[in-house]
Amino acid sequence: MTQGNDHLSIFDSHCHLNFSEFNADRAQVLNQAARAGVSDICIPATKHAEWQPLISESEALSKEGPVNIVTALGLHPYFISDHYTDHLSVLDQLLKQSPAKVIAIGETGLDFFDRAITLQQIKVQTELFTGHVELACQHQLPLIIHSRKSHDQVLKVLRRFKPECGGIIHAFSGSEQQALEYIKLGFKLGFGGGITYPRATKTRHLATTLPINSIVLETDAPDMPLNGYQGKRNEPERVKLVAECLAELRCISLMEVAKATSQNCRALFRL
Known about the structure:
This protein is of the alpha/beta class. Helices cover 42% and strands 16% of the residues. It contains nine helices and eight strands.
């Protein structure tokens, strides 16, 4: 049963609201999210071309809309062919200007999911990811990290640099040992629609048993649909359904989940 939204404040820590899938009805999507109890959304960039528009649009959306929008700037490993090393210099210069709504570096990381990945592609991904981590250390900002089939390699880089501000491991689906290693390094673990699938036993177990102060919620909208919404565009309002699922798994109230996970985001992003 869906619980009421009185004083509910949920932080969607990862939502690509800037993607073209939302061009036709972005304002309506935000209004629906607000009605579901969503108070804040973090939009992480995936490509250099998104950076300047995101900075401008996040300010406008926050002023005009019912939800506070913050952003992260980075280069997603999936789009490696769109990235150049000098993009990191551009990012450095942008961060020196300290745009108010830019609260993290990301989406960055390593994606070794493709079995046909070459050694050169691994090398380029690792160099770019390492550059992001170095910038996070220089600018004292948290990271938003994408990791597929690469947790050990991501951890190796993080142990080397030990970024003080930590960050979020987006859509975490690694092992308990890897989860604890990330937590030890000051990172939060992002859980989204994946935990709504009964077959996702390992991820649901971790979402149930890891410390609540190490967990943040996310949708990854328009991607990562929840159970029952396969084939449909994911939306930020459904972070409430993720919160309800986590509350059920942990046998605590929706309000407790919303409060704890949102506080985790606000502390991490220094809001």
